[in-house]
Protein 1
Amino acid sequence: MKSLSFPQIFEQEPDVTGDAAKEIEETFGFPYTTSAQNENGQDIQGIPWHALNRSREHYRRERIQSYTNFENEVPDRSELQHLSKEITPCEPVSRLYKFKLNTRSLNPSHTHLQLRYMVWATSSHDVYVMCQHFVNTNYEYEIVHWDAKTHRCQQICDLSAGMFSTSDHDTLRVCSMVVKEGIMLLGGQIGELVCMNIQTGTFYYNQQISTSENNITNSIDLYQSYTGALRVVTSNNDCIVRIFNLPNFEELSSFQFPAAVNHTSPSPDGRLFCVAGDMKPVYLLDSRTGKKFATLNGHLDYSFSCSWHPDGLLVATGNQDKTC
């Protein structure tokens, strides 16, 4: 695997030479930054800001000011004025997390601009992530397990090994991923759904669930239904949400929507789905029948993420219009 290089941190490589360039090279040749090093003044990513004559805060401020979000639906002036009145700016009120460790020994990656659910933590130290590395002039991808206690990395699945019967190519181009209950689920660029036991390496399922022209498996989730049984729910670009049982992967039901579905989040009790996609409304529906329970309006563009509060009473949505 290739270590992270300094220019990848910036949109443009800064103009540095001499001692500053040497310090940058030495810093990024070292694969970790610890909490102790950070308390002694080292940047959490190991970036030597003093050699660049700028601070992390200054760079973050510049980046936020220059950031432009990707837009599918361009809102008109009246919509923007209305939205600006409704928005409550998000201000940091506390530190929810304490910095522990940054590793640069991995090279996390994604294959789609808008689909980035490619990191899963199943415990306080077990992390599963899709990485890329450069081999013989080509990028190759793999799913790895990284242990934050031992700092050891183990390949779980080689996505370039030609083991996926659903693909016309050797590489499964993963667009969605979930790791729960000892199971890894992968969704592909051409409608693939792959299920693997991460302990034994056994594949339970490896098929295309959609064969339409534009059939990306945008998101997957593994959840416990209201009956207590484990279920898999998928969201595809063919505008369909599908529910499968385990371990046979029989399709139990499917629900059609007016546009591509980007994300489906089951409620904690498994009774409701929150469904977001290439449409301004977000829908709440009965997970068993597909009957719409509520329509959530207010966004001006497409939504790509939604998530329930553990109490099942609140749900959050993330949209390209930069609002939640």
Note: The radius of gyration is 22 Å.
Protein 2
Amino acid sequence: GAPRCAVVEGTMWQQPAPSPFAAASPREFGSGGAAATLGSSASWAGAVGSQARPAPQFGSFGAPVSSGMSPAGGTTWNGGSQWSSGACAPRPGELPGEGENGCGGSPAIGCGGSGSDANWRPLGFGAGASSSSSAVSPWVLGVPEGPERPRMRRHPPFTWQPATDFLGEFRVSGDAREVVTKVGDFWEPGTVVPAAGTLQMSKGGLYHWTLLLERLPPQRPQIQFGLHGVGHSRPMRVLSSTRCSRARDDDPWEPRPAGDRALAEGDYVHVQVDLRGLHLPFGTLSVAVNAEPPEIVFDDIPLGSGGAAVSTTPVIAMGGDSARVRLCPAY
């Protein structure tokens, strides 16, 4: 039937989620995927004619940046700290700087006949890479060509979707609709109204999500979270933020076995729903607050029997004006 209100009674949890991204490695990659470490040759000294060679500059993948434009078979990066020169190498009997176009085969000075930093351009990667004298490289001082390198983007595991009967009670915001805020105090004192998530959980799955309690109004601080059947039907398993008491369906509230525990603003509540049924004929719901170890809150979530599937959804219930909860990105 229609979505139901719940009687107030309880508390929530927190644990900052660790970043899944390791620190970027200082090692760059050369041709063929081989690691290329820049050694002492990264700063060069020498003379081309009467002019000192400027230090080479490297792009985001360890590619050296050279000046001017190189003819076919020009200077290339080998993947180590070495250069190889092609048609630009000095001929026998010639001094550096006296070769064709005055380049003398210098890896730091291209064949444009000028050693000015303003004319520097990079060469290609790997053996055999070269740039045409009639084309200007799209790389300028190490800025890569093409679109940005793909990056991992973190997204919430689901979005909030209040029931039609309670659309006016909540404001859902955020780029991924991950923030739910209660609008005004619910007209009936001591009562909270639910907003469900779009995730549907069923037998065989293992589900995780993290809630950040951003605001708990002092006049009505209780927030309930857990799971409901689809359409806010049974099974219902919820935990309250004021005492961490818990309730099943329409049964009375039960106290937390380890004693009352009140959640506060800024707490992270990590929820795990295990519907695999590995060791029990039922599913379990576990909760951890911040960096604390998880505790099993419910171990009797029905998985379905006789071919009848049971689907559940995450749920949050609030009654006080400006109560706000954020669903954190999944890792």
Note: Residues 95 and 104 are 7 Å apart (CA to CA).
Protein 3
Amino acid sequence: VRAPHQRPPRSAGLQHGPGGALLGLPFEDPSGHDDELADCFDYGNWAGSVFRLARFLATPVAASDGPVEWAQSMGKVVISYDLPDDCDIKDITVEMNRWQIKVSSPGPSGKREPWPDMTRDLRHTVRSLNSYWFVDETDDQRALSIILTKQDHTSWRELWKPTPAGTVIFRRSPFIHSSATYATSGDDRWTTLPRDTPKWGTTQAPNVEKPYTCFPAKLCIGAHDLELEGEFGAAIYLLFDHYHLQQLHGFMPLEEILMAEISERQVKVYLKFLLHSKEYVQIFEAALETDCIPEQSTWAMTWRRTQSPVGDFPALQLRLALQQPGGTALLRRVRHVAELGAPEQIIGTSTELAGNVA
């Protein structure tokens, strides 16, 4: 995953509902937003003849709160703040726990003082894993940019959590510890964030969480569904097991472990566990009878009710724009994880690049 390295432009868990259910959010086409923001988050990109879907779009895509600007995907939040001319970058310290951030520098007395605009309670929880900060220098402007990894696969409607004036009671966000939560106890304590996209898993940035064992055949139940959307649109739903998907998301945000490749006549989905340091684990493949327009493809996580198998399943929705009218025979050949030679189990560790096989 290419982490965002550009400053967000100036703006003009799995998400859980009652009962812990994953909710599907409408997916908004990023092509209608500012090009700089699309570049910042790398929602999709060409790799030779295939178009790779990289990040899940969240809404609002970008917003501001006073002097603080922020942008988001379903897995990341980028916070940007203009630095004063007399600020020495070497004096800046950025700290976080799972529900707060704090930026500080030495004050007139020499004691570190927090910056009021950048020391706040976050609206939702975050993970220290793969969170960091850097200074973006453009022309004569400098901006502090903080990259935070979301705890849950959800859109943030606002950056900061409102706090009643003059009180600190009930400031902490509720947090449910379960088998699907890979957060460590250290996330409750203040952590100093590394600077400038450090090399994860080293003494410079030792924020690699405990290893995780993935069972591809248990995660992917070997089923899919197809829905036509008018004459020139179709949606493929790849069904997952709820428990194992929660485990995978607890290990790493879904947009950093899932990848889809779309060509005119083929759709492929991967888990970004590196095998032999050169290839990902393929879990789905479908050949199309009709040409699609790869760069107009979108994806989202949602729920899908099916008759075979019977039930409601969390699903990866892949929406395709077709060049000719499609039909119920749009999918010419489909292969699932059992037919694609995926390993029975994979033991990996979290890094920003992907799930590296241990």
Note: The CA atoms of residues 258 and 271 lie 5 Å apart.
Protein 4
Amino acid sequence: MDICAANQLVIGGTLFQHRDNKGTWWSPNGLTVNQIDHICISGRFQHSLFNVKVCRGADIGSDHYLVRGRLQIKLQSVAKITAKRHDVPAIEHLRNSSKVQEYNVALQNRFDCLVNEVNLEDMWDNFKQTVTDVSMEVLGKRPRKVKEQHLSQTSKNLIEQRGMFKRRDPTSNVNRSAYSKLNKLVKKSCKIDDNNWATKIATDLEEASKKGQQREVWDKIKKISGKKKKKVGMSVRDKDGHFITDPDSQKERWKEHFTELLNPPLSDANLDDLDGVPSQPSFDYLSCSDGPPSRDEISYALKKLKNCKSAGVDEITNEQLKYGGSALVGQLELLFKNVWEEEVIPEDWLNHIKKV
């Protein structure tokens, strides 16, 4: 009461009348009931609180009951951005040699049917669309990850039975005794399920290690250890150290920061001394007589690509290029030759945005 009076708070449980008991805690012997859990709200928003009720049906194995409040607050509407989900091919199937051979044959047949385009943008669009379509046809769509269920059906049935006794009269000795027994069985069954899940993850980890699948090994280690990536905070401060919450103001603050960082004040250094420094070519191994990249150079560059990297705006991963075979190398050779002669690159190559 003193805290509410000092901070001008209103106890929501005292504003609404209900026929059932407002008690939020029952003693283990079922003889004592107290209202010790509350929902407090500022007096300024008192009329935004529509109802406060004790829910005896919610069961989490505790002697406290859930206190539920219904609140309505008018907030500023924010435009919701709905991102379209793109189907991603199952790139992991390219680890199978038979799938790689099927992928190469499909690309060869599809590229043979293409009409030789003169426009660079059309050439790149046809190449990109062909690689994407063949990948989806041969490799299939990557299934979405389904969250693994730790609890068995036995544990779920026990939890459901425990919830039934939770909703019954807590003053009855029979109900309290049955609830206590079921609560012990639930804890024991859940512990067994957790041990079985950890054993399964460890077995999968050993199998992935034997096959040399280091990416799966580290994924399993992170899952079983419970380590997750820390979320990067979006808080931005102004020059005085105050937080900025408005998105537009945050963008202006970032603009101001990088403008000052990348445009420092001019110093008094004498730049005339740099005139006597001889210029050095950036690429010593290139000459005016060099031509466009050859097939061997393209094949060598594709082999050097690393796996398991994010795709760019073209939505083509390194594996789709790396295991494309001679047909894909031939199409890249024609594309690079056109770029070399026209001295123009496709518009997608100017965008280096990575999708995460």
Note: The chain has a mean pLDDT of 82.
